[in-house]
Amino acid sequence: MATLEDVTGWLNGKSAALADLDQSILIDLKGEGFIHVTRDGATNEQKAADLTIRTTLADLVALGERRLDPAKAMFTGRLKLSNMGLAMKMQPILKAMFS
């Protein structure tokens, strides 16, 4: 199973996808830690962000591996977004980050 550090490092390797990121993202892993993402990279700091994504580390990995459908995760409460409109606008970047 991937660790918080694995996922943070993996996101830092996605510099091409992050270059287009105009907003900041905070991934709240429900007690397992945080990943704050900007165009400059990812850290494990809990900072204010334009979009907060709340899920577990296991579900984040499953979303990235395409084993968990994002719509199904939202409808079942396994994925929560602080701003649906912004998340929809950022959808191409989010897909690139997790491809």
What does this entry look like structurally?
By secondary structure, this protein is α+β, with helices and mostly antiparallel strands. The protein has one domain: Nonspecific Lipid-transfer Protein, Chain A (2-Layer Sandwich), CATH 3.30.1050.10. It contains six helices and five strands. The chain has a five-stranded mixed β-sheet with strand order 3-2-1-4-5. A hairpin with a 5-residue loop joins strand 1 and strand 2. It is globular and about 30 Å long. The mean pLDDT is 94.
* CATH-defined superfamily: SCP2 sterol-binding domain
User: Overall 3D geometry?
Assistant: globular
Q: Any guess at the CATH architecture?
A: 2-Layer Sandwich
**Domain tally:** 1
DSSP helix count?
A: 6
Which class in CATH terms? Answer: Alpha Beta
What are the low-pLDDT stretches, counting only 5+ consecutive residues below 50? none
SSE arrangement, N to C: HHEEEEHHEHH
Distance between the termini: 18 Å
Largest sheet: 5 strands, mixed
The tally of beta strands, per DSSP, is 5
CATH topology, what is it called?
Answer: Nonspecific Lipid-transfer Protein, Chain A
The averaged pLDDT comes out at 94
Strand content: 15-25%
What Rg, in angstroms, do the CA atoms define?
A: 12 Å
Structure class:
alpha+beta
Bin the helical content.
Answer: 40-55%
Spatial order of the strands in the main sheet?
A: 3-2-1-4-5
